[in-house]
Amino acid sequence: MRTARPSALSLFPGHPPGLTIIVLTGLWEVFALFGMRTILVFYLLELGYGAGRAIEIYSLSTAAAFAVTLLGAVLADRVLGVRRAVVIGALGMAAGHLLLIWPSVLFPALGLIVLANGLFKPSLVSQIGTIYHRDDPRRDRAFLLYKAGCNAGAIFAPIICGLIGQAYGWRSAIALCGGVMCLSALIYLFGNGLIRAVEQDRGDTTGDDAAMAAGGGQKARWTLLVLIFVSGVLFWAAHGQQGGAVAIWASQSVDRGIGWAGERFTVPAAWFQSVNPIIIVLFTPLLAWIWSRRDRRADGRHELRKMAFGALLLAGSFALLVVAAGMAGQGMAAMSWLIAALVLLAVGELYFDAIGQALLVRLAPSSLTTVFISLWFLVQALGLGIAGWLGGTWETVSPAAYFLVVTGMAAVAAIVAMAAAAAMRERTPS
What we know:
This protein is mainly alpha-helical. It is built from 14 helices and 4 strands. It has a two-stranded parallel sheet with strand order 1-4.
């Protein structure tokens, strides 16, 4: 098996330099997108929209960004090519952010951002798979590193854009997002030669296409994909509760007070949303080290077991909330329960999401890699939709009962992932 040569330009020892370009490109894209979404509602309120309408615009634009990834992936695979798609998508998002400054073109600007993001994201992510041989165990760790890099952008974007928006106005913060998206495009334009060089050095793996499915047959391939997607929908439906039910419970039923120097400080409920990206960034080096010691060769069944473990961690996260809500009753739960649950949730996401993307890239035919990545985003969109539907029942049941249902969803996601692993036969390397 031929592998890519290391380079001094790589920020990740043992990985090709192309991964550094992809991670940095994705980091600034996430910074721009998360920064814009953080301040969008406040900007809309400033423009005179009501709170309900502002939330509706925010929610629809976020969901649409996931939904159009399939269209963007088809265009990238069949018409544009992934490199051209990334560049066009990045410049389109930059233009969309800058156009948001003018209220008269608000909706066209949001539409441009949505369409450009649908073209950009699956095209960029799919290239992670192309810089490794299909059986290279570093591929799983590469998706993990990419996820951590993007979450670094997610940590700082709300803080910086929020501060600039408060100090200089929301238009200034939106302009910053447009400038940062230009930076993302420049990094990719100047660095994509490194990705190309790695691809040319990786050898021909197209012969793997016929051998990669469970048992090699098309029926087995689609059965396996259905199981993976069902597990994914259930996982994201449970995971999506952190921004809704968990956030509400944290604001209403958790004792967030901290004593310090004789004073009592109440932690804002919104701050707990930062726990997820922080834990992802902190735990990524540890998991990458563990996987590098244990994984000698990428194997679909092993990857599915990792995904099942991630779903079990998610189930454990909500099981802690069941206990905490049950013990608190009508009183206030200790903040330590919430923090412990959010840590488990974030680590479970690392196992499930990063590995899920890596597995889909391995299962995809060479001509449909970007399409398969876009399907993963569609799975997330569907899961988040179910999370929102389930959230409508929050006020009709007790928090403990609600979290118990979510625990069950995550546990079923783990069971389905294990069923997929059992259905996947060991394949012989080409």
